[in-house]
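Lab notebook, bench 4. We co-purified these components, and the gel suggests they stay together. Before we commit to crystallization screens, I want a quick structural picture of the whole thing.
Request: model the full complex, all chains together.
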Amino acid sequence: MAPTVERQLIVFDFDWSMADQDTDRWIFEVLAPDIRRKMKTLQEEIQWTDLIAQSLAELHARGRTQEEIQHTLRIMPFHPAMVRGVTKLKEASNPHTTFFCLSNANSVFISTILESKGLQGLFEEIVTNPAHFQPSGLLKLRRRIDPNGPQHDCKIGCSPNMCKGEELDAFLKRHQPDYDRIIYVGDGSNDFCPILRMRSQDMVLCRRFRGLEHRIAKEGEERGLKCQVKYWAGAWEVEEIFASL
Ligand SMILES: [Mg+2]
Ligand SMILES: [Zn+2]
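Here is the predicted assembly.
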């Protein structure tokens, strides 16, 4: 018989996992497609968070406003089934569910979208790159890990601004005792590092056709992936899985 689950943790990546789009790319596709095109060429040479910070400065220099950025975020695709699924799970008391957001986007993008969906109280913690609007309307963005300070020592290939595996471990240390079950919802190749640290009673809900699916197929076995893997493509399937927990 499976041990009973009283406390569970659900870890959410944000772009293409909780949300049905990628915030960093969406902003520029809507407000300045030529900057979006430029990002494609520059991403080989500039670290991604730095590139977004630089592109946001360019957007500001063109006179695009805080209101325009916030509006663009609010209209970004976000599936109603995702809102329903997490809301129901949060309300249920048995098992008790804690939500943790672990994202390579930034604090302004995430909080603006969550508020627009009535989900501002969902997460216990949001770990991401820090950002804020300056009085001028410039959205100032920094890496989670300062490039001038000590760097993470991840060997799984996380980008310099954040190792999601180390961040998951740190969250679990802050929130003892251990959760009976951890469920990780992710899609990207940088979601591979944290799921390697999960146990056999834990589960990853992996979005199909994206980086995480490829990494699980290629490296999962050799790196000793222990958690269960369930695949999904549309948010309605995540709602379905959540309802069956
Ligand atoms: Mg993602
Ligand atoms: Zn890592």
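Residues 48-61 form the longest helix (14 residues). Worth comparing against the SEC data before the next meeting. Residues 13, 15-17, 187-188 surround magnesium ion (ligand 1) (CB under 6 Å).
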